[in-house]
């Protein structure tokens, strides 16, 4: 949820309720842990499919996460997340939770969504986005090289 919905982990995930998910209209209502109010994000396909799978495997009651998960310490949740990443043989990112959120933002911007929309969906300002979340990737440099090359004429 941090990677594809840009949730602040774990605070915003812990407060997610089934009533916050509108599969029919394609919207995800997130209780913004910093502003103490709700924001609405599109229910993108990767989020939708994971939530539907989760719904099948976990008995949702008041919250989307199981009581067992919700009552596990934050440090222990982080350790479980790191263990899962290590099993994939990928190198875990530094500042994992923040970087999951940042990668969501960068992907949405790269997909062509307006910066105003993305920052509203993720719950921060454009200036904070530019200062803390937006970053350059290897593909940005490669795209710049290709774009700057003189066009061949036939």
Describe it for me?
By secondary structure, the protein is mainly alpha-helical. Helices cover 53% and strands 9% of the residues. The chain is built from 9 helices and 3 strands. It has a 3-stranded antiparallel sheet. A hairpin with a 4-residue loop joins β1 (21-22) and β2. α6 (96-110) packs antiparallel against α7 (115-122). The termini are far apart. The mean pLDDT is 88.
Q: What layout of secondary structure does this protein have?
A:
Elements (H helix, E strand, L loop, with lengths): L1 H4 L5 H4 L6 E2 L4 E6 L4 E6 L2 H13 L9 H4 L3 H14 L8 H15 L4 H8 L3 H8 L4 H11 L6
Antiparallel strand pairs: 1-2, 2-3
In short:
With 154 residues, the chain is mainly α.
Task: State the separation between the terminal residues, measured CA to CA.
Answer: 48 Å
Indicate the radius of gyration in whole angstroms. Answer: 18 Å
- Percentage of residues in strands: 5-15%
Helix content: 40-55%
Strand line-up across the major sheet:
1-2-3
The count of helical stretches stands at 9
- The arrangement of helices and strands along the chain is HHEEEHHHHHHH
- Give average pLDDT, whole number: 88
General shape: globular
**Which regions are unreliable across 5 or more consecutive residues at pLDDT < 50?**
none
């Amino acid at each position: 949820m941090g990677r594809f919905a840009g949730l602040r982990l774990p605070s915003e995930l812990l407060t997610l309720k089934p009533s916050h998910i509108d599969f029919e209209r394609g919207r995800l209502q997130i209780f913004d842990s910093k502003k103490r109010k709700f924001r609405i994000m599109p229910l993108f396909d990767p989020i939708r499919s994971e939530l539907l799978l989760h719904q099948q495997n976990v008995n949702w009651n008041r919250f989307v996460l199981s009581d067992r998960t919700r009552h596990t310490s934050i440090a222990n949740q982080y350790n479980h997340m790191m263990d899962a990443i290590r099993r994939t043989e990928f190198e875990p990112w530094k500042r994992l939770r923040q970087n999951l959120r940042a990668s969501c933002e960068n992907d949405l911007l790269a997909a062509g969504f307006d910066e105003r929309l993305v920052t509203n969906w993720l719950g921060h300002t454009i200036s904070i986005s530019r200062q803390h979340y937006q970053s350059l990737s290897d593909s940005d440099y490669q795209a710049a090289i290709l774009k700057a090359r003189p066009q061949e004429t036939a």
